[in-house]
Write a structure and sequence with these properties.
The protein has 580 residues and is α/β, with parallel strands linked by helices. The chain contains 19 helices and ten strands. The protein binds adenosine-5'-triphosphate (ATP) and magnesium ion.
């Protein structure tokens, strides 16, 4: 029942839709229950010879009127109740998206996209069906079953008892199959998630697949998963397929009993012809709910399982949360201090950063260099609190980063991540991503500083050109410079560039750095780079090696020291000489 706590809130929110829908449904049922009564009267009149055409016209007119009523009211219950279930789906989908949006970055490292897609499609559908059709059908089934049984008993209670003897078998079949249906449906869902995951990975990795000629193995892998999905579905269909015939068999027995026992009574004149026909008609009505119970059980089982899975997401609290009364740094000065910080992505994993102590005074430009995998990007990510660090190890403007209000802090940081990501929007929208209210002039000014302006104006529609799947394909360097412009437009107090010039040639980089000089005079800057030419003018350079700070100082001091930094410098000079 815990599963339904989430749903209860939404059912309550749309209660009036349900109330109105149920009312209409009752009318439909009422009309349907009257029709056999009229048929009975007409047939009795015919068999006793009391019928004339005027009377038959009257009965036909009634039936026509009722049929119209059934049609009209049926439209409304469907409109209201199916409508309510669509609204519930809408709310749940929004909540789902928002919950995911609030999760910290770490959550997405651990969660597969395929699983999320399956939740957003299959599972949400299953819950919608449960919240709409299944609820209506169970209400309808209960009402119709009771009402038609009363009608049957009124016509002939003894015969009713006889024909009801096979009914418990129906319940038995349903109980036996319900659990199995549930289990197999779960397996189908899991298999579907794995299939979507595969497809998703293929589409995003298509370039690598082509370059390494892996189409055939990829397809083979997909086929295996697809076959598994089909097999799981077939197992479900097998049970589902046995369900209907078994129920049909029981129904056949019921009608056989009516013919046998009821027919006998008509012959012995214990029952009128009209009663016999009406009895069959009410039995037909009573049987629908019995079948529906099986169907409803299925919908309910699926819905319950799916709701359970969605609840897991809904109840997921973001790993990174603000404290109760967070410190709002506005404006941010940009003083940063690490105190004996150890950091690892997983609790039981080797630390990625070890015993880091460093100070970055506000307004300084600091560079971080080091071998690949040494922990540079990690150092930057924790400065934005994308991952949590131990208490008392990282301070921003003198406050522990864990005590800060996240939004105002992050708004004042301009970060160009190592992996550039552009959205499928126009160039200008991508630049304005962090500052949607900025003017176009400002955005263009930042584009000029980032040295992307000249490229963009050559695109077919200049700054309004679409980027990505639906527009131009950009080079790595072009993407990086758009990302730099995006960070600048935020007017950050703290500018972080994570290897942001890696795809840009040294000449362009030089120009960007010159343009940035004025901008960077007012901000605290942290530059990660593999190139000595990028970092040599920094106020201070830290060399990270295997998670430790191995060296620190100015360019000249580090050359003097003759360690890792001097070594990198020597090699890069040599490389340059060979290239020139
Ligand atoms: P590069 O110069 O190649 O960008 P880097 O110095 O930026 O390297 P990091 O990206 O900080 O290196 O990675 C440092 C270590 O942390 C690596 O061993 C990497 O495997 C590990 N690591 C990075 N990101 C994660 C993550 N999200 N989860 C677990 N481990 C990670
Ligand atoms: Mg990195």
């Amino acid at each position: 029942m815990k599963v339904f706590r989430t749903l209860k809130k939404y059912l309550w929110r749309y209660k009036w839709y349900f109330v109105a829908g149920f009312f209409m449904l009752l009318l439909v049922d009422g009309f349907q229950l009257v029709i056999p009564r009229i048929t009975k009267a007409a047939i009795d009149a015919l068999s006793y010879g009391t019928a004339d055409s005027a009377l038959l016209m009257k009965y036909a007119g009634f039936i026509l009127l009722l049929a119209t009523g059934v049609g009209g009211t049926r439209f409304f219950w469907r409109y209201w109740i199916i409508g309510a279930s669509r609204k519930i789906e809408f709310d749940l989908r929004n909540r789902f998206y928002y919950t995911l949006l609030s999760q910290s970055v770490g959550y997405f490292n651990k969660t597969k996209v395929g699983d999320l897609m399956a939740l957003a499609t299959n599972d949400l559908d299953a819950v919608r069906m449960m919240a709409g059709i299944a609820i209506v059908a169970s209400f309808d089934a209960f009402f119709m079953l009771t009402a038609s049984l009363v009608m049957l008993a009124l016509l002939n209670w003894k015969l009713t008892i006889w024909v009801l003897i096979p009914a418990p078998f129906l319940s038995l079949i349903i109980m036996k199959f319900g659990k199995q249906l549930h289990d197999r449906f779960e397996q189908v869902q899991a298999s579907f998630a794995s299939l979507t995951d595969k497809a998703q990975e293929t589409y995003s990795g298509i370039r690598v697949i082509k370059a390494y000629v892996q189409e055939v193995p990829e397809f083979a892998d997909f086929r295996v998963r697809n076959r598994d999905y089909m097999d799981k579905n077939m197992r479900l269909v097998k049970i589902w397929g046995m369900f209907d015939p078994l129920i049909g068999f029981v129904i056949g027995i019921c009608f056989g009993l009516v013919l046998l026992l009821g027919g006998d009574r008509v012959i012995l004149a214990k029952m009128s012809m009209g009663d016999f026909v009406a009895f069959s008609a009410y039995l037909g009505i009573a049987i629908w709910p019995m079948i529906a119970i099986g169907w409803i059980t299925n919908l309910y089982q699926r819905g319950k399982a799916s709701m359970g899975r969605l609840n897991v997401v809904f109840e997921q609290t973001p790993e990174i949360r603000e404290i109760e009364k967070p410190v709002v740094l506005d404006p941010l000065k940009g003083d940063i201090e690490f105190k004996n910080l150890d950091f690892s992505y997983d609790e039981d994993a080797e630390p990625v950063l070890k015993n880091i102590s460093l100070k970055i005074p506000a307004g300084n430009t600091v560079a971080i260099v080091g071998r690949t995998g040494s922990g540079k990007s990690t150092l930057l990510k924790i400065m934005l609190r994308l991952f949590d660090v131990p208490d008392g190890t990282l301070f921003i403007d003198g406050h522990d980063i864990r005590t800060l209000a996240l939004e105002p802090f992050r708004r004042q940081v301009g970060m160009v991540p190592q992996e550039t990501f552009l959205f499928s929007e126009t160039v200008i929208e991508n630049i304005k991503f962090g500052a949607p209210d900025a003017t176009d002039d400002d955005a263009i000014r930042c584009a000029k500083i980032a040295q992307i302006y000249d490229n963009v104006i050559e695109f077919p529609e200049g700054f309004s050109t679409m980027v990505g799947e639906r527009g131009v394909s950009l080079s790595g360097g072009q993407k990086q410079r758009i990302a730099i412009a995006r960070a600048l437009l935020m007017k950050p107090k703290l500018l972080i560039l994570d290897d942001a010039f890696s795809a840009v040639d040294t000449e362009t980089e030089e120009k960007i750095l010159q343009g940035l000089a004025e901008f960077m005079a007012d901000t605290t800057n942290i530059i990660v780079s593999h190139r000595i030419s990028t970092v040599k003018n920094a106020d201070k350079i830290f060399v990270i090696d295997d998670g430790y700070i191995a060296e620190e100082g100015t360019h000249d001091e580090l050359l003097e020291l003759g360690g890792i930094y001097a070594d990198i410098d020597r090699r890069q000079k040599l490389e340059k000489m060979l290239n020139d």
